[in-house]
TrEMBL record:
Xref: InterPro entries: HPF/YfiA_ribosome-assoc, HPF_long/plastid, RHF-like, RHF/RaiA, Ribosom_S30AE_C, Ribosom_S30AE_C_sf
Subcellular location, record wording: Cytoplasm
Coiled-coil zones: 73-100
Keywords attached to this entry: Coiled coil, Cytoplasm, Translation regulation
Keyword Chloroplast part of the UniProt annotation: no
Protein name per Swiss-Prot or TrEMBL: Ribosome hibernation promoting factor
Transmembrane portions of the chain: none
Amino acid sequence: MRYQISGKQIDIGEALQTHVKAELGEVIEKYAQRPTDAVVIFSRNAHELACESVIHLSTGLTAQAKGQATEIYAAFEACREKLDKQLRRYKRRLRNHHNNRTAPVEFDGGSSYILASSEEHEDTEPETLQPIVIAEMETKIPSITVGEAVMQLELAGQKMLVFRNEGHGGVNVVYRRDDGNIGWIDPRNSK
C-alpha cells in the first residue's frame, strides 16, 4: 500500500506520518483486503486544523473523509473515525462484490476541456449568460456494475459518477437526485 501524507503550509513530522500509517493501515486491513493507495492532507483553517483523506481500493471504490479539530492528531482521529464508519457500513457490500470480482477494476481514460474567456474581456458583459467550463482534468472511468457505482457514489460523497457498465460495456451515469434517491442513466436502455 502506498501512502502520500502531506501538509498545506504545515510541516508534517515523522512521528505524525508513522502514526497515520499505523492507524490507517489498521482500519484498512480490518475492512478492505486489497487497498492500493491512501492520500492524507493536513491543512490549517484559522485556528482549526483539518485532515482530508482519500483511500483507493482495488475494487474501484474510493472512500474519503474529512476531520477538523484544534490539534493535528485530533483532526486525524476525527477523519479516521469517519473512514472507519464508512468502510464498516459497506463491509458486507464490499466483501460480496469482491468475491464476485476475479480481477481488479479496469479504468478507461476520459478528458474534459477548458472553455474560458481571455483575461482582457473579463470586465465586459458576456454576450450570453451561458456558464463557462473553467476546469480541465483527466479522469478515469471505471468498468463496474451499477451496484458498485452506487456504492462508490455514496462512499465518495459525490453527486454524480460516470462509469462503463460492466454488463454491456456502455457508458452510464448514476447521480444523487434532489429527493435523495439515486438516479441511473443508461442511454442503451432509452430506445
